[in-house]
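Box 3.1 A note on notation
Throughout this textbook, protein chains are presented in two layers. The first layer is the amino acid sequence; the second is a token string describing backbone geometry. Keep the layers aligned when reading.
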Amino acid sequence: TLGVGAMSVRQRQAITDELELARRRHPELEQFIARHPHEPFFVKNLENIQGDERDVIFISVGYGKSQADDKMRQNFGPLNSDGGHRRLNVLITRAKLRCEVFSS
């Protein structure tokens, strides 16, 4: 069983949008995604992933320059705030077998 944990709502939406495009282009993906109806595939952001365990959790880490001023900020959203280490712990412990980290 699979799930994706994104660091922000915006990142989760970008992944969801790309996944929907891929599903339209490749209808055979439906069969793969629906393989485990009791534990369906999901894409969730850090704040919403608590309670959802899967065999493998893909952790998406993708940050870019600010659109407002074209500067790269060292801001990891909820992870930078008080208790951020607990949110990271929740994300990592959603995986029963392993985590796979990917970035853009």
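The chain has a mean pLDDT of 88. The helical segments are 9-25, 29-33, 84-92.
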